[in-house]
Amino acid sequence: MNVNLPKLVNAALAEDQRGNKNVAIVSDNWTAPNHRDAGFLSRDFPKDPPRLIITAESDDFDQLTLAAWQDEGFLVEYLPMGDSGPDDYTHRLRELSTRKMGPCQTFGIIAFGDAASLCLEHYHVLDNNPDFKLGCLIAYYPTRIPDPDTKFPSAINVLVHLVEGEVDVVKQTQMIGIQGKKRLVKTSIGRGIGTGGSLHFGYPGYAYEVEEGFAERDLDEYDRISAELAWSRSLATARRAFGIHVDVEVAVEVNTQSKFFARNLQQTMSTYTSTVHCAPRVGHVPTLTGGIGTEELQDFYDRYFIHSNPDSWDVTLLSRTVGVDRVVDEMHVFFRHTQEMPWILPGVPPTDKKVEIIMVSIVALRGGRLHHEHVYWDQASVLVQVGLLDPRLVPAKARENGVLRLPAIGRTSARRVLNGIEDGQEGEADNGLIYEWEDAQESEEEDEEDTEDEDDQSEEGGESQADNTVKASTDGDKKGKEVEKPQTELDDGTNNSLSSEATDDNTHGENGEKSHDWRRASVVEGTDSS
Fold first, then answer.
1. In what ranges is there compositional bias, type Acidic residues (predicted)?
2. Where do the domains of the chain lie, and which CATH numbers do they carry?
C-alpha cells in the first residue's frame, strides 16, 4: 500500500500551516520530552526517592550530615574512597552509572576532600557520564579542581565549595576530541566577590574564610555559619537537579497562625523540628528571649509568648523572600501595651501605649519544619513609644562631645516603610538626623533672608533650622540653653512630642484596631505582600 505522507500531514494541518513540514516534525521530536527528561512522566507517576551518593576518604562519615540529607527526602548512600588508590575509586564511580534505575531516574554525588577532587576531574569529561545518569555533583573543599575557565557537561548541576588558600588546577588541552596531557598549576583562592564569596569560574563555586572540614560537624574545623551557607546552596543545587519543588511557605504560615492568632501551643510546636540532631531554636535578638530545644521552647511559648500578646496585636506582611530553606518576612506590627509582654518588653509593666514597629523574621527549615527563627526589630523605637526612652535626654558625657539628641525614632520609621515612597518623591529622603544634610538642603533652597537667619542661628546654637524644635541641655556656660534641633518626621511617640504625627487617631481606632481606610492606604501606597 502506498501512503502519501506529505498529503496525510497536510490534511491534519490548518491551511496556513501546510507546506513542507518534515523539518518541523523532526524538530518536535527533538524538543518533546523523552525518557531522560523528568517532564516525560506525569507528577502522579510513582517514583523512587532521589538518590544521593555521599563520598569521602574515611570509612565512616559525619552521621549528622547523612541524617540531614535523609530528612530532606533523599535516599542516601555512603561510598568511602578507601585506600586502594585512585584507579579503583574511579572504577567504582563508573559502576554507579551502570546500576539499574527507573525511568527518568538520575543520581547525585556529594563529595568531600580528596574524593571531591577525583569526582570533579572524572565527571569533567563528557564520556564519563553515559546516559546522563549523574545529574548533580557537589564538591566540598577539593584539593584540586578542573580549569576554572572551562565548563562541565550541561547535564550535570555542579557546585564547588572551596576554602581560601592554594589549590591545584588541572590544565588539559583538547583538540578534535583528543585529550592532551594533564598538568597541574597552583592557584590562590581568594575571598570571592561581595559578602557571599562567589567565584568567577566557568562552573558555580564559592569561597569560605574557614578551614577544610568546615561542613562536617564531627570535626574540630566545623564552622556553623559557613556550613549553613554551604548547606542552603547545596540543597538548592540538589533540588534543582532532581526537579524537586518544596512549598516552604506552608509551614511558616501554619506556625504564624498557631502562635499569633489561634494561640494553640501544641499546634505551634508541631511546626518545629523535633529530632535530636536538629533541635529547634527561636531567638528574639533585641531582647535575647526565646528557647533552644523542644522542651525549653515549649516552656517559653507557654509561659511568656502565646498568651502574652494583647488582643490589639496586629501584623501586616509587607514583603516575603522565599529561598530553598529560608523564608524572610518583613512585617508591620501594631499593638497596644495593655499587658506584660516578656518577650519584647521584659520586666516592663503595661504602659497602655500604642506601638508600631517593623519586624523582620528569618526562618530556616529542615525537612519541611521550622529549624530556627531569628526575629529582629528596632528596640530603641519600642522604648521611645512606651515612654522609656526620651531622645532628648542625652548623657552628660555625650553632651560634652556635642551630642544633642539620641538618634532614635518612634513610630515614624515604621509608617515610612508602611506607606512607601512614590517615584515622584525622588530627592526627598528624610535624613532628618543628619544635621549636615539639613544644612546642605537649606543652603540650596532658602532665599538670602533665610540664609542670614540661619547664620544667626549657627552663631547662637551651631545647629540648622528645622520645622520643630526640642530642648537640649549642655554643660558649662551653655547649660540650660535652648538649641533648635531637627524634629520633622522624627516623631518619638511620647507625650512630649511636638510633631502632629505623635497622635494615633489617623490610623487606629479607640482600642487600637486598624481602620478600614488605614488598611486600604497600605495597599494603595504599594506595600508588597507577595
1. 440-462
2. 38-242 (3.40.50.1820), 249-377 (3.10.450.50), 396-422+430-438+455-524 (no CATH)
